[in-house]
Amino acid sequence: MCGIFGIINDKNNQAAQTVLEGLKKLEYRGYDSWGISIIPQNQKEIQVDKHIGKIGEAKTNLPKGLIALGHTRWATHGGVTDNNAHPHLDCTKKIAVIHNGVVENYQEIKVELLQKGHKFISETDTEVIAHLIEEKSKSKKINEAIFETFKLLRGSNAIAVLDYNSQTIIACRNGSPLVVGLGQNQYFLASDVPAFLKETNKVYFLNDGEGVILSNSGAKLYDIDSEKEKILTPQILDWKLEDAEKGGYPHFLLKEIYEQLKTIPKTTSINEKEINILAEKINSGYKVVLTGCGTASYCALATKYFFAEQGIDVAVIPSYEFMPFSKFINNKTLVFAISQSGETADTLIAVKQAKKRGAEIVAVINARGSTLERLSNVVLSVGAGPEIAVVSTKAFTSQLSTLYLLTTAVANKYEEGKEKIINLNKVLTKWLNNQLTSQLIMLAKKLMNEEHIYLIGKHINYPATLEFALKIKETSYVHAEPFAAGELKHGVITLIQKGTPCFVLASNDDVRDEVLSSASEIKARGGLIIGVAPFESNEFDVLIKTPDLEDLTIFANIIVGQLLGYYLGVGRGADPDKPRNLAKSVTVK
Ligand code: F6R
Fold this sequence. Notes:
This protein is α/β, with parallel strands linked by helices. The protein has helices spanning 15-25, 106-115, 127-137, 142-152, 252-266, 272-283, 295-309, 345-356, 371-375, 394-410, 414-431, 434-447, 461-476, 512-524, 553-571, and strands spanning 3-8, 33-39, 47-52, 67-73, 88-89, 95-101, 157-163, 168-174, 179-182, 187-190, 202-205, 210-215, 218-223, 228-230, 235-236, 287-291, 315-316, 333-339, 360-365, 378-381, 452-457, 479-484, 501-505, 528-533, 542-545. It catalyses: D-fructose 6-phosphate + L-glutamine = D-glucosamine 6-phosphate + L-glutamate.
């Protein structure tokens, strides 16, 4: 939700251009509008350039300078207008503020500031921050004014302030991510690493309650409450520049779909120790609860089926429905919180509640340094690298593979599980070829003008239909509705008319005949049956053949949905990397 990027000491004295380029790497965090503020050389006030719309091809005419701070916005308070775009200035134009989060008490603060004569230009909650800092800085040092202002803001927020007088960028975090990059004589602040990865992988992720002052002599860390300096201990990330570039692919989404051939097998070489300890705990009687939102909740559901195969019953509670069931959680519960970003507000709320009930929290996450990571007792880092496309693909399959390995460890079959994942990858590598792509492009062309698509699957293929359908909806805006195959005859079948496309996801398992008989019920009503399965059948009008990988066939079945969604989206003129109305991490309730 919103991207933040700032630089101090730009090596080319072109800080605004550097911020523009860095923000383009963060556009997945919000694309309603963008804006940049700069301290221009030899000028007496901050200059701002801000516009509605995507930053994609944008240019800026801001003057040269060493220090700049910018933002991409996912609107919460105030409509999508140029005035509401960040940064926001104080009355003197010496303070520019950008913000990620929601200031819940902004109305009361605004009333007081209006009485003191401050003039507001936007309808946002953010603008009050600039004026409140201005007010406090009349009698205090700028860092004190910023820390005190921040303490007055209710809600989960991260702010970054560009201050003309001290020539610094000062930032505070409570709930929304912020990371400092320490380059060679250049210092960066961002909401995510890809913004500055070109320059440095030496980073420090701010914790809640921490503030940072970036000046031309480096970064100083503070505890916001006591306003005392702390030691800043950076870490070196193993991310490479290629991870944050398209690498010859037209879109990040397509690149990330193909990257799964590297990221899925990587899960077999990490987390082994943690997985075995967790397996022992589960076998000693700990109850397992899996939670997450969207794609992560479908990963949770698929994991439930994998656990069931090993004879273990686990609960799945989507994070946004967690509260009524949290009373069943206690100190013998392991709560697995699944999240790409580790910043999803609903997931964090569920985790905080589970912690209150005494549960142990296991974070199954991709992004490092997140709030979820800090809230957890154990971290299963799934190692998929930066996922830039808003639609989740490689993070999902890495989470699923990691949790699949856990279920095999519970059954004392971890080595066998590893072999199966390595084999899965070999088979996927052969199968994901030009022939498959051509078939999917043809299918996308055939479905291009459809407004409704239905999907059925049974048992482990049921969560696969949920994920497949979400990919289609997010990427192409076609209404795709998934059902458990058994649900069909209980009402859904009324939706089937002549030619209605219906995907049937299946594996070579003991329910394949039941799924095929549901398919024949749809076919009898005129539905167009598109099989996604490792076998042929007379019920299928079209077959996208996936490799037979036993219980792991769903990985291939889901990849079909990822690719089809991509080609449908491109064909229908959508932006596959940045679907409308969505943001990569949903940090509001
Ligand atoms: C789907 C998608 C969303 C996220 C959901 C949770 O492609 O991206 O459904 O999966 O918002 O996000 P994380 O995993 O960051 O907690």
